[in-house]
Write a structure and sequence with these properties.
alpha/beta, 17 helices, two-stranded antiparallel ribbon, about 40% helix, Rossmann fold, 3 domains
Length: about 500
């Protein structure tokens, strides 16, 4: 979605941090976010001042008005602007940004959706030359001048650098998997949407973009010089726009680094005050009351929580987060509403009491619509764990469950994850809408189809096992072999032809 020049500049920014000694991409993106925020704060503040001068009804107080005391020294806040620090030589700018400007943004009263999350942040850029180069590249990106789509794409492209698992098995869900899940769930402007373990906020960012697109008429689509379509949401009222940016999207994470990165992701997509809460949703003080219409999530797994921190409203006797998050999602969903969640395969067939109980809860207490098996390496290069997507609603009962064996996702199933031609995702989305949403419970799959129905009774008989291998029928095709006597005759004929050819060749020598 980005033009080659922007991509080249972002790649240069990445390389600047790698060559400067910050090899962890999560740390690099966090530090880059601070520099982007410093630039953006200055530019938006000037816009606010200009608007206040032009409109008597608009009241604005500059973030750079007055003085601030830092390290027992008083500074005029105007000196925190980039116009001042850009006049300093590198050896002066580096300590000023690190010790003064960074402290200033960490102590902003009006956090603008990001500064509030900086309380425990650290400035880790190690040397003046690296800071100067990074600031220059960010200036050349002209982030504030870009439209929200392009600014968001710049940050998403930067997030593509996240190629290692983070703390507690947190890693970035592949964008194309998120987009498929959002299209299947079909969130609307009327929904209150949540991700209880947001990471970089990919599910909610794409839900936001999906709603914007669905509420844009053909006349509201604008194409840029590169042919990229941008959606104006011209069918939304001002009240709906405000609702979408302030109430509709709700997300949580217990990792402060991920909260900062997710907050900046939102800001780059045009939402200045994202509705984020820094909290552990499995913690015993988190409210389990039904609240959300749509939940989209890829919760952390292969991780356990301290038993003393687990909420009393959990009925599962387990410390496994993948199981607790499933029960939490069920509890937080409003009646009549829907969920799409990625889980490790072990949840589908695990034999512990907690595993069986959570599957029983889903089959007996929800409308379990679909189990979508993903390729085992879909999360490469993060991890090679096998996963599946569960789609369920909280308004009807389970009669049949639709299984889909997604074998190709447009990328090679190795560490390189190069684009390839094979892709089952369009078929998955089309067949889900046609068969599951169309309630064609009696339709049988064709020979080449990758889906099939399983009756609830059969699932119950198998102790609520939801693994696709349990029910997928293996079709054996009979092979027709030639008569051994015919094979021997053909071999002898071939031998004679070879001998004859060698004799003719020998005569010519």
């Amino acid at each position: 979605m980005l033009d080659p020049q922007l991509k080249s500049q972002i790649n240069e920014l990445r390389n600047t941090f790698r060559s400067g000694g910050i090899s962890n991409p999560l740390t690099a993106i966090e530090q880059i976010s601070y520099l982007i925020f410093m630039k953006r704060l200055d530019e938006l503040d000037k816009q606010g001042i200009l608007k206040a001068k032009r409109l008597s009804s608009f009241v604005y107080t500059s973030q750079f008005a007055g003085e601030i005391e830092i390290n027992n020294k008083t500074y005029d806040k105007e000196k925190m602007r980039r116009s001042h620090r850009s006049q300093l030589i590198p050896e002066e700018m580096f300590p000023f940004v690190r010790d003064v400007v960074f402290t200033f943004i960490k102590n902003l009263d009006n956090g603008d959706g990001f500064a509030w999350s900086l309380k425990d942040a650290s400035f880790l850029i190690p040397k003046p030359s690296m800071l100067v180069t990074a600031v220059k590249i960010i200036e050349n990106l002209h982030i504030t001048e870009q439209n929200d789509d392009t600014s968001g794409d710049i940050y998403e492209y930067l997030l593509g650098e996240l190629s290692t698992a983070g703390k507690s098995w947190q890693f970035r869900t592949p964008r194309h998997i998120i987009q498929a899940m959002v299209e299947i769930i079909n969130p609307t402007i009327h929904d209150k949407i949540c991700d209880p373990s947001c990471g970089t906020a990919g599910f909610l960012i794409d839900s936001y973009k999906y709603i914007i697109k669905q509420n844009t008429s053909k006349d509201g689509i604008i194409k840029d010089d590169y042919g990229t379509e941008h959606y104006s949401a011209n069918l939304l009222s001002e009240d709906d726009r405000k609702k979408l940016k302030t109430e509709a999207l709700n997300w949580y994470d217990f990792d402060s680094t991920m909260v900062r990165i997710a907050s900046m992701n939102w800001i780059m997509h045009g939402i200045t005050n994202p509705n984020v809460k820094y909290t552990d949703t499995l913690w015993k003080w988190y409210d389990h009351s039904p609240e959300f219409d749509v939940i989209l999530a890829n919760p952390p797994f292969k991780w356990s929580i301290d038993a003393s921190d687990i909420h009393d409203e959990f009925t599962l006797s387990t410390k496994k987060t993948e199981l607790l998050f499933l029960e939490l999602i069920y509890q937080k969903l409003m009646i009549w509403w829907k969920c799409g969640v990625i889980i490790p395969d072990g949840v589908l067939f695990g034999s512990s009491n907690a595993h069986r109980k959570i599957r029983e809860l889903l089959v007996e207490n929800t409308g379990l619509r679909a189990v979508i098996s993903l390729p085992s390496w879909v999360f490469k290069p993060y991890a090679g764990v096998s996963t599946a997507i569960l789609i369920f609603t909280k308004w009807d009962e389970t009669n049949k469950v639709w299984f889909y064996d997604l074998q190709a996702d447009w990328y090679s199933l190795d560490d390189k994850r190069n684009e390839i031609s094979d892709n089952d995702i369009p078929d998955l989305i089309e067949k889900y809408k046609e068969i599951v949403l169309g309630k064609k419970l009696d339709q049988e799959p064709g020979k080449n189809d990758k889906w099939f129905w399983v009756k609830k009774d059969e699932i119950v008989e198998n102790k609520y096992d939801l693994s696709i291998s349990k029910y997928k029928k293996i079709v054996y095709e009979s092979a027709v072999y030639q008569d051994p006597k015919v094979l021997i005759a053909n071999i002898r004929k071939l031998e004679n032809e070879i001998i004859q050819g060698m004799d003719e060749l020998e005569k010519k020598i």
